[in-house]
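Is this the right way to post structure tokens for a design question? Let me know if I should format differently. Anyway, here goes:
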């Protein structure tokens, strides 16, 4: 089984404790996932510091200037799933790349009492692995 490539935008997402905990769990599962930061955050020092704290090397921290740069990076690095807090970016990911976009927000799913982004991620992982 190949590793799934997962990327995320740090702006606003990394401020959500549940997302930080979730992405740490994904990073720790090194047999299943390869994780990238793909972000157009204005603060590249912050991006590098978060990446280093997460144990990511510089190859896995991709600084972008514009949204289109993020889309290009996802294609270049063959990303499978990208987390972002902007619906407009998620739509671009879904419409213009082979990746799946997952919207990050702090709201809990009322049926599963966990964030929607976790439920969506788990569903996508299952779908991607079934299709291979």
């Amino acid at each position: 089984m190949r590793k799934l490539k997962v990327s995320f935008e740090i702006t606003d997402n990394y401020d959500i404790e549940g997302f930080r905990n979730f992405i740490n769990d994904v990073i720790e599962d090194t047999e299943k996932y390869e994780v990238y930061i793909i972000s157009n955050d204005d603060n590249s020092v912050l991006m590098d510091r978060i990446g280093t704290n997460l144990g990511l090397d510089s190859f896995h921290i991709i600084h972008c200037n514009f949204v289109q740069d993020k889309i290009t990076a996802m294609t270049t690095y063959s990303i499978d799933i990208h987390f972002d807090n902007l619906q407009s970016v998620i739509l671009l990911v879904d419409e213009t790349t082979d990746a799946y976009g997952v919207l990050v927000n702090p709201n809990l799913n009322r049926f599963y009492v966990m964030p929607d982004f976790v439920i969506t991620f788990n569903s996508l992982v299952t779908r991607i692995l079934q299709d291979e």
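Format looks fine. Someone answered above. Worth noting: Helices lie at 17-28, 44-53, 67-76, 87-96, 116-131. Residues 4-131 form a domain with the Rossmann fold fold (CATH 3.40.50.1000).
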